[in-house]
Amino acid sequence: MTSATQATNKTFDEIAIGDSSQYVREVTEREVQLFAAVSGDHNPVHLDASYAASTQFGEQIAHGMLTGAFVSAAIATELPGPGSIYLGQNLQFRAPVLLGDTITVNLEVTGKHDSRPWVTIACTVTNQHDKVVAKGEASVMAPTVKETVTLVAPPPIHFG
């Protein structure tokens, strides 16, 4: 059975500089494993607890780009929301994201471009200790048509 929620976008005309939103997510070992499978990044610091224990981190960490994917999810579902087109991103990783961390993606509109429906969004990702783990800026084409869509959870993934 799949679960569904509704998401309503904010159109370019509705967006104002200073608008903000948050997206919260717990980072699980399963998500890290799935990201490794999909991306092909099998670095043992993400997947092998024994190896990771011998690194500067002392334990397994999430892929940096998994954090980036959570920024993408925040843009797609929160601000501007459905119908957004991700044009670009700069993102600096400031601290490791550990398995079990709860991260918060904070988005804030810092610019609007009059000639096209593009917005600039400051992106700051913090963990449950309010430590910045990633920071950057996204360029996004905002939707021009107001819509509410159903976000359907993907089907379960089985490896075998």
CATH class: Alpha Beta
* SSE series: EEHHHHEEEEE
Q: What percent of the residues sit in helical stretches (DSSP H or I)?
A: 10-25%
Strand order, main sheet: write it out.
2-4-5-6-3
**Number of self-contained structural domains:** 1
CATH homology superfamily: Hotdog Thioesterase
The fold-level CATH name is Thiol Ester Dehydrase, Chain A
**Radius of gyration over C-alpha positions, nearest whole angstrom:** 17 Å
The backbone outline, from C-alpha atoms, is: globular
Kindly state the mean pLDDT as a whole number? 95
Name the quaternary structure: single chain
Strand content: 35-45%
CATH architecture: Roll
Distance between the termini: 21 Å
Q: Mind describing the biggest β-sheet?
A: 5 strands, antiparallel
Which regions contain 5 or more consecutive residues with pLDDT less than 50? none
What does this structure look like?
By secondary structure, the chain is α+β, with helices and mostly antiparallel strands. It has one domain: Roll (Thiol Ester Dehydrase, Chain A), CATH 3.10.129.10. It contains four helices and seven strands; from the N terminus they run ββααααβββββ. The protein has a five-stranded antiparallel β-sheet, covered by helices on one side. It has a two-stranded antiparallel ribbon with strand order 1-7. A hairpin with a 5-residue loop joins strand 5 and strand 6. It is globular.
Question: Quick recap of the structure?
Answer:
This protein has 160 residues and is of the alpha+beta class. The protein has 4 helices and 7 strands; from the N terminus they run E-E-H-H-H-H-E-E-E-E-E.
